[in-house]
Amino acid sequence: GQNIDQPTEMTATEGAIVQINCTYQTSGFNGLFWYQQHAGEAPTFLSYNVLDGLEEKGRFSSFLSRSKGYSYLLLKELQMKDSASYLCAGGVTYKYIFGTGTRLKVLA
Amino acid sequence: DTAVSQTPKYLVTQMGNDKSIKCEQNLGHDTMYWYKQDSKKFLKIMFSYNNKELIINETVPNRFSPKSPDKAHLNLHINSLELGDSAVYFCASSQDPAGASTDTQYFGPGTRLTVL
Predict the structure, then answer these.
(1) What Å distances lie between residue A72 and A28, A47, A84, B104, CA to CA?
(2) Which residues of chain B have a CB within 8 Å of the CB of A104?
(3) Alpha-carbon distance B39 to A89, whole Å?
(4) CA distances, A75 to each of A12, A18, A38, A86, B39 (Å)
(5) How far apart are CA A43 and CA A102, in angstroms?
(6) For A46-50, A70-74, A85-89, B82-86, which range has the lowest pLDDT when averaged over its residues?
(7) Are the C-beta atoms of B92 and B108 separated by less than 8 Å?
(8) Residue B30 has what DSSP assignment?
(9) pLDDT tens-digit profile of B90-111?
(10) In whole angstroms, what is the distance from residue B111 CA to residue B6 CA?
(11) Distance between CA atoms of B115 and B13, rounded to whole angstroms?
């Protein structure tokens, strides 16, 4: 089957670093994507990985290990506006499969 | 310019009614999708269309009928609405179908459907 798991909720402090993990059990993922979704809004694209390793984009980085079925999103220098849900998604034939999402709360 | 737009943003209706949600994208993408996001915020694929053709129907009840008059539009019609249909429905698009490339998808603002 195709399954993607993420922690339900995380809390971190402004200025800190947080790592949001995503594990998956599926084959045939063409890429592993990360989206941010603020309450009441649409998901917006943050980052993706095709090959194993780390992709860095400013304060956000994403890592993928295909052999371990594991990815993480790293957020540095946390800001209050980073409080949102973070969705991990895999692209398979003709569809994207989303994880359950991680709700991140950033505290002052 | 809005890349992916949906109307209406909010829809409140009675059980048993029929309603439609419209979606349009001006990105020139070939593939469009409908997702349902439930109260637990789980985002689940419903349909995928590529060049106006249905390519994925993710075991959605046939009360839901998508229609793609052209590549830029994918509408969703729902018959005999039920309480369990209450959710946020997102339209999205990507250049190529998921799995064919690493293209990301772009989401519309969502339609919050409430069935009373």
Answers:
(1) 19, 11, 16, 18
(2) none
(3) 19
(4) 10, 5, 15, 11, 26
(5) 13
(6) A46-50
(7) yes
(8) S
(9) 999 998 776 666 678 899 999 9
(10) 7
(11) 5
Q: How many CB pairs under 8 A join A and B?
A: 67
> Which residue of chain B comes nearest to A4, CA vs CA?
B42
**Which of A17, A75, A50, A22 lies closest to B101, judged by CA?**
A50
| Residue A83 and residue A105 in contact, taking contact as beta carbons nearer than 8 Å | yes
Chain A partners of B107 at a C-beta cutoff of 8 Å? 42-44
pLDDT in tens, B12-66: 999 999 999 999 999 999 999 999 999 888 899 999 999 989 998 888 899 999 9
CB A52 within 8 A of CB A65: yes
Distance from CA of A4 to the nearest CA of B (A): 11
- With tokens 């409080």, the residue in question is A83
Interface membership of B58 toward A (CB under 8 Å):
yes
Neighbours of B13 (CB within 10 A): 16
B68: pLDDT strictly greater than 90: yes
Q: In this structure, what is the dihedral angle of CA atoms B66, B41, B100, B71, given to the nearest 10 degrees?
A: 30
**Closest among A17, A20, A16, A18 to A32, alpha carbons compared:** A20
Nearest CA in chain A to B54: A94
